[in-house]
Amino acid sequence: MELCNILKYDRSLYPSKAVFYYKTEEKDFIPLQADISHIRGQKAGFTEAFTSKFESKNLQPQDLAYSNPLIIEECYVPPNVEHLYCRFSLRVMAKSLRPSGCSNPEVFALLEELAITFHECGGYQELAKRYCKNLLLGTWLWRNQNTGNTQIEIKTSSGNFYQITNTRQLDWGSRWPKDAQQVLDELSHELHLALTDPKVFWSADITAKIETVFCQEIYPSQLMIDKDKGEASKQFAKVECLDGLKAVSFNSVKIGAALQLIDDWWGEDAHKRLRVHEFGADQEFIVARRSPESMRSFYALFVKSEHYLDELKKQLLAAEVYISSDIYYVFAVLIKGGMFQKKAESKNTETETKKKAGTTRKAYTKEKA
User: Fold this and answer.
1) What are the helix and strand counts (H, E) for the chain?
2) Which partner from 74, 136, 142, 368 sits 20 to 30 angstroms from 233, CA to CA?
3) Pick from 148, 181, 183, 154: which is nearest to 166 by CA?
4) Is there a domain that residue 245 lies in?
5) 110-147 core/surface letters (b: 16 or more CB in 10 A; e: else)
6) Would you say 244 and 33 are in contact if contact means Cβ atoms under 8 Å apart?
7) How far apart are CA 186 and CA 193, in angstroms?
8) Strands 161-164 and 202-211: what pairing?
9) Where is this region: Disordered (predicted)?
10) How many independent structural domains does the chain possess?
11) How many whole angstroms separate alpha carbon 119 and alpha carbon 114?
12) How far is CA 33 from CA 74, 75, 78, 80, in A?
């Protein structure tokens, strides 16, 4: 299969922003707010004292002792609050069953048949289970997982309620207790239906109840801003409530990134899960685990769709179905969605190509004569 000039998939997972709040005896929703702090930062960076060649700068003894005034936002749990809540919603739609735009009818038909066969082989069940694991483990809390016991509650549009009493008792790779495993299986079944049936409009309301310590620091999403004079250089994402107060939050992209932390197929010795990415971006080591040279990138695998279709059709006839990790990864990217086409050649490039081809033909004719 060749990539088309137009080829795109709509994403299948639609998380909302996640809002932090706490409760009191009088109110069941009080937004957690950020504080603005004026601090005297230290001049401790490498470039403060050294050049790029590791040579000392010409400084006075007191230059590195001066403070560096900063304005930043900080977020802490109010005193006497024992539990903090973080809540978001998730909609799931069956958008990976076919492209949302494709300039080649043959490729469209191939990809649609591939998705149908992948579904018949039970492939979506594994992906649904992985997304649900991240939901139930509270992976989406990011640095806020490093706290006390955390309870996860999920209400679905199907009318069901699921609860994990303590995420600290669970781990991605370990065997889950019977009650937690049942929750995982039942929730995965609901999400699986939403991924595979376009007629199903499914959503879930997810809440984490976090046990905190006195005035514990909280880490919401941090904004990337162009700082103006007098403005905080470090600011958090916020959601404005009806009463005008602003609750710190996670942006939806950060929630989605956590749900997509399922790629442990990137190498035989893969020691961690990566966020689903076309080139296996590893933000911890700043390296592409699926670089173009590795032939494990999404594009290198995606063009093998005809081969994967034949492979899955053979598995349908087998006593025990086996789906390769490459196929799981390809569909995880399609669920994430994106633009996967190759760029069409510009008119200038096409003209240059024709000129080069004409010159080559003339040279060949002369040589032959």
Assistant:
1) 9, 18
2) 142
3) 148
4) yes
5) bbebbbebbbebebbbbbbbbbbbbbbbbbbbbebeeb
6) no
7) 11
8) unpaired
9) 343-369
10) 1
11) 9
12) 9, 7, 9, 16
State the Cα–Cα distance between residues 187 and 155, nearest whole angstrom. 10
DSSP string of 147-190, one letter each residue: SS-EEEEEEETTS-EEEES-GGG--SSSPPPHHHHHHHHHHHHH
C-alpha span between 189 and 64 (Å, rounded): 60
**What global pTM score does this model have?**
0.89
Side-chain half-sphere CA neighbours of 23 within 13 A? 9
User: Is 299 strand, coil or helix?
Assistant: helix
Note whether residue 157 is domain-resident.
yes
Q: In terms of Cα–Cα distance, which of 222, 212, 239 is closest to 72? A: 222
For residue 338, list its beta bridge partners.
9
65 lies in some domain: no
Give me the domain span that covers residue 230: 7-22+80-339
What does DSSP say about strands 13-15 and 281-282: parallel, antiparallel, or unpaired? Answer: unpaired
Instruction: Look at phi and psi of residue 303 and say left if phi exceeds 0, alpha if psi is from -120 to 50, else beta.
Output: alpha
Helices (H), 232-277: 252-259
Let me know if residue 60 belongs to a domain.
no
